[in-house]
Design brief:
With 236 residues, this protein is mainly α. It has 16 helices and no strands. The protein is globular. The model has no long low-confidence stretch (mean pLDDT 97).
């Protein structure tokens, strides 16, 4: 019999560690004015959360979805991991339900680990053979996390050697003012280059002088040293 949300929640309460929670609060920048301001932690490491996902694979979608509203970071992480796991095992009807649940709760997918552990496993696959217009709307969102979901969702397409959305959204995000967008966008550009260096370099030659330094550094991380230096010196 599938466990209820209450049962799963009670289990989470037994798994927390105060020292880990304090470290997590610092690591995920929860101080005033920081990107994770006000987030709360039980103090549960990621492998333990993933174990809970496996333990409760038969939990109802309603139960899983309820954790998206949790004030506790690890419970929201459990929710997005569980939704990603459920998505790959579901038929089209349930995949639609998972996608719509995820999209309705974007404001609760609100730290980089939540985004990076789910966007390319839910949003990307659902949009694979559908209109991707929504990604462009998300890339222009006022929400840092929604913008990150937009670029990270394209990782699914990159794995299929489909780079169009990654490059187009990266172009939108070049002027973004947040370091976490610079890192994610540079990372996705690097992943493009891992599969097609010419495609990445064609983008970089056009845009590298306008790119934030962090974005550029992430994008060229795997380049030969002489090539990295040339980009950083503006001599390409």
């Amino acid at each position: 019999m599938a466990a209820s949300a209450t049962t799963i929640r009670n289990e989470f309460r037994t798994l927390g560690d105060k020292k880990i929670a304090e470290h997590s609060k610092r690591f995920f920048k929860t101080g005033k004015g920081e990107y994770g301001e006000g987030d709360q932690f039980l103090g549960i490491r990621v492998p333990v959360v993933r174990k809970q996902v496996r333990r409760h694979r038969d939990a109802s979608l309603k139960a899983i979805g309820s954790f998206l509203a949790s004030p506790w970071h690890e419970e929201r992480l459990f929710a997005v991991f569980s939704l990603a796991d459920r998505f790959k095992r579901s038929n089209v009807a349930e995949q639609r339900e998972i996608f719509e649940l995820y999209m309705a709760n974007l404001h609760r997918v609100n730290n980089w680990d939540l985004v990076d552990g789910s966007a390319h496993l839910i949003v990307g696959p659902w949009l694979e053979n559908r209109s991707r217009r929504r990604l462009y709307q998300m890339a222009r969102s006022r929400s840092l996390w929604t913008r990150r979901i937009a670029i990270m969702s394209t990782y699914h397409f990159i794995r299929m050697s489909d780079f169009d959305e990654t490059l187009a959204i990266a172009e939108i995000l070049i002027g973004d003012d947040h370091d976490l967008i610079h890192k994610a966008t540079g990372w996705m550009l690097r992943e493009v280059g891992n599969r097609d260096r010419k495609a990445e370099e064609a983008f970089l030659r056009k845009h590298y002088k306008a790119m934030p330094r962090t974005m550029l550094r992430y994008a060229i991380e795997k380049f030969p040293e002489y090539r990295r230096k040339a980009y950083l010196a503006g001599r390409v």
